[in-house]
Specification:
Blueprint (H helix, E strand, L loop, with lengths): L2 H11 L1 H12 L10 H9 L5 H12 L5 H25 L3 E2 L2 E2 L1 H5 L1 H19 L5 H23 L8 H25 L5 H28 L2 H4 L5 H4 L5 H9 L2 H13 L2 H13 L2 H19 L7 H21 L1
Antiparallel strand pairs: 1-2
Helix pairs in contact: 1-17, 2-5, 4-5, 4-9, 4-17, 5-7, 5-9, 8-9, 9-10, 10-16, 10-17, 13-16, 16-17
Length: about 325
């Protein structure tokens, strides 16, 4: 079976629960004052990939079965993710997200930043409904990590001294934190032992880092029509992602100076040329290989998880991301 078909089968395995997650996300606007209900409904209305809910539900399935508590977790994590997207689009000046105008493109930055704040606060309020307070604390910790990672990335924009280790630390915080808690709490809610819970947390963490590397490559090498969102914003805003860092590290003095100038000037002509340069220099391949290595490590973590259809489905979503890396950087 092809990797895309296996990914679809993985989604189908928890389709009933995902349908409930989707319905509940769409209905979240009812929890807000009617004056802002329309804004919340729009922000939550884009049909995203729902990868974080998928990891949470499959982790529950791998350790005993996805329950209503897992659906609650999935909804909360996706709402936090949506809040981060609202804020990301403001900072990046993005005009398109999930094939629709971003909230900032429709209503401006001032309203959108407050809308993101409302979504964050609402998600954390939902998290307090778990009787076990350690769950809400863990979700809050992950949310703090996400925000901290975003702050550090913003702080280090156009910083040519950013190292690849710095970059990996940033994306571990801003992206992998929610994937890690999806795996960890997904197992915890099922009463899994510590070894299994830790393995699923590490699966989520490594998968999340790999996914952000892929998303960063998409910004440089992708097609905007296929991606359904504004591309080139990382380069324009001075976010030094892995392909650029690899090329900077590998460049000799003269070529490094030229590349540095392109990054600092970030003109439209430079963006049009940078993808080709990165491919020819092997930086695209190096970034892909780093992501694929992390995916293989994530898959290896599942050796400590009971073998069943949900565990195999987690492997399949990692293999699917592997295939997307190869398609994008071929």
């Amino acid at each position: 079976m092809e990797t895309e078909e296996r990914f679809r089968a993985a989604v189908d395995l928890v389709a009933p629960q995902l349908a409930i997650v989707e319905e509940r996300i769409q209905n979240q606007s009812r929890a807000f004052d009617e004056a802002i209900e329309g804004y919340v409904s729009y922000a939550c209305g884009g049909a995203g990939k729902r990868l974080r809910p998928l990891v949470a539900l499959l982790s529950g399935g791998a350790t005993g079965g996805a329950t209503g508590a897992h659906v609650d977790l999935a909804v909360i994590l996706e709402l936090i993710h949506i809040a981060t997207l609202v804020h990301d689009d403001i900072m990046d000046g993005a005009e398109l997200r999930r094939d629709r105008p971003t909230t900032n493109a429709k209503w401006g930055n001032a309203l959108s930043v407050l809308l993101g704040d409302c979504l964050f606060a609402h998600a954390l309020r939902l998290a307090t409904q778990f009787e076990d307070q350690s769950i809400s604390r863990r979700i809050a910790d992950a949310s703090s990590e996400v925000c901290t990672g975003e702050i550090i990335q913003t702080q280090r924009r156009f910083d040519l001294n950013l190292s690849e280790d710095d970059y990996l630390r940033i994306i571990e915080m801003k992206t992998a934190a929610l994937f890690a808690v999806a795996g960890e709490i997904g197992a915890y809610l099922s009463g899994a032992d510590d070894a299994t819970t830790n393995a699923l947390r590490e699966f989520g963490r490594k998968f999340g880092i790999a996914y952000q590397i892929y998303d960063d490559c998409l910004d440089l090498f992708g097609n905007e029509a296929d991606a359904g969102k504004t591309l080139g914003t990382d380069f324009e805003k001075g976010k030094l992602t892995l392909p650029l860092l690899v090329m900077l590290r590998q460049s000799e003095n003269g070529s490094r100076g030229a590349l540095s100038e392109m990054i600092l000037q970030h003109s439209e002509d430079d963006y049009a040329a940078i993808g080709t340069m990165l491919r020819e220099a092997g930086a695209a391949t190096a970034a892909r290989n780093a992501g694929v290595t992390l995916l293989h490590e994530a898959i290896a973590e599942l050796d400590a998880v009971p073998e069943n259809a949900s565990t195999e489905a987690l492997r399949d979503i990692a293999h699917y991301l592997d295939s997307l890396f190869h398609d994008l950087t071929a």
